[in-house]
Amino acid sequence: MCTLEKRGKIFFLKLTGAGTDEHRLNPILISSIRSALSEVKSQSTRGTALITVAEGKFFSNGLDIAWAKSASDGSPSEAINLLRHMANLFKDVVSDLISLPMPTIAAVTGHAAAAGLLLAISHDYVLMRRDRGVLYMSELDMGMALPEYAMAAIRSKVAKPEVRREVLLRGVKFKADEAVVKGLIDSAHDNGEKTVEAAVRLGEELTKRKWDGEVYAEIRKALYPELISVLGLTVMTVVNARM
C-alpha cells in the first residue's frame, strides 16, 4: 500500500507495489495514505518537508474502478455509488495535503491519471520523469463527471484556462517536457532516479529555510481560497514571528 520513512528532515511517503502495480486509490490505500500523512503531521517540526514517490510503472492510475465493480456484486448502480464513496474519501487526502504543515513535493516517476493526477498536483511542487509516463484526466473518455473539489483543485493549481481546457475537455495526455511548458509541473528529469534525486535536492533546499510549519500551512490555504472553501477548511491568523 504505502510506507513512510524519515531521512533527516524529509519524510518519504512511498506508494508500494513492484512491477505493474497501478496504485489504484481504493478505500484501503486511501486510508493508508491518510494514516501516513497524519503521522507526518504529528512528527512535523520546524524545517521539515514531504516527498511522495511510487514504485513501478505508475504514480497512480486513479480511483480503483475494478474494486468498485467487484465489491458491488455486479450491480452497476452500486458500483457507481462505491466510486462516489471513494471520491468522497479521496477528498480528505487532498484536504490533508493542502493543510499539511510543511512543503510537499510529488516525484512522479510513472503515469498519473485521473485522481492520480489530482494526487500529484495537490502537492506544492511536481517533478516528473521525461522518459516514461503521462499526466492524464481520463474522466471525459470514461464518461464520468468530476466532483466539485477536483474541479476546484484543477482551477486552483492549473493557471492557464487553455491548459485546463486541454486537460478536462480534450483529455490530452501530457508527457513531462510538454507538462513543464504548460505549467502543469515544475520540472522534467531524465529518468525516475534523477526525478527522485531532484526532489530530494529541492526538499533539502526548502528545509534549510526552517519555516514554521503552521504558518506555512495557513499561507498555503490562503493561496487557494476556492479550493479550501470546497474542502471545508478555514484560514487562521497565525503569528509565530522570530523577532
Structure report:
- The chain is built from eleven helices and nine strands.
- Helix 1 (27-43) packs parallel to helix 3.
- The longest helix has 23 residues, at 76-98.
- The protein is 49% helix and 16% strand.
- The strands form two sheets. It has a six-stranded mixed β-sheet, with helices on both faces. The protein has a three-stranded parallel β-sheet with strand order 4-6-8.
- The mean pLDDT is 94.
- By secondary structure, it is an alpha/beta fold.
- The protein has one domain (2-231): Alpha-Beta Complex (2-enoyl-CoA Hydratase, Chain A, domain 1), CATH 3.90.226.10.
- The protein is globular.
- It catalyses: a (3E)-enoyl-CoA = a 4-saturated (2E)-enoyl-CoA; a (3Z)-enoyl-CoA = a 4-saturated (2E)-enoyl-CoA.
- Pathway: Lipid metabolism; fatty acid beta-oxidation.
- This is Delta(3)-Delta(2)-enoyl-CoA isomerase.
Percent helix: 40-55%
C-alpha Rg (nearest Å): 17 Å
Identify the strand order in the major beta sheet. Answer: 1-2-3-5-7-9
Strand-residue proportion: 15-25%
Number of strands: 9
Name given to the CATH homologous superfamily: 2-enoyl-CoA Hydratase, Chain A, domain 1
Mean pLDDT: 94
User: Any idea of the CATH class?
Assistant: Alpha Beta
CATH topology: 2-enoyl-CoA Hydratase, Chain A, domain 1
* Overall shape: globular
The helix-and-strand class reads alpha/beta
Q: How would a crystallographer describe the biggest sheet?
A: 6 strands, mixed
Order of helices and strands: EEHEEHHEEHEEHHHHEHHH
Uncertain spans, ≥5 residues at pLDDT below 50?
none
User: How many distinct helices?
Assistant: 11
**What is the architecture at the second tier of CATH?**
Alpha-Beta Complex
Q: How many domains make up the 3D coordinates?
A: 1
For the terminal residues, how far apart are their CA atoms? 44 Å
Enzyme class: isomerase
Protein name: Delta(3)-Delta(2)-enoyl-CoA isomerase
EC number: 5.3.3.8
GO biological process, one term: fatty acid beta-oxidation
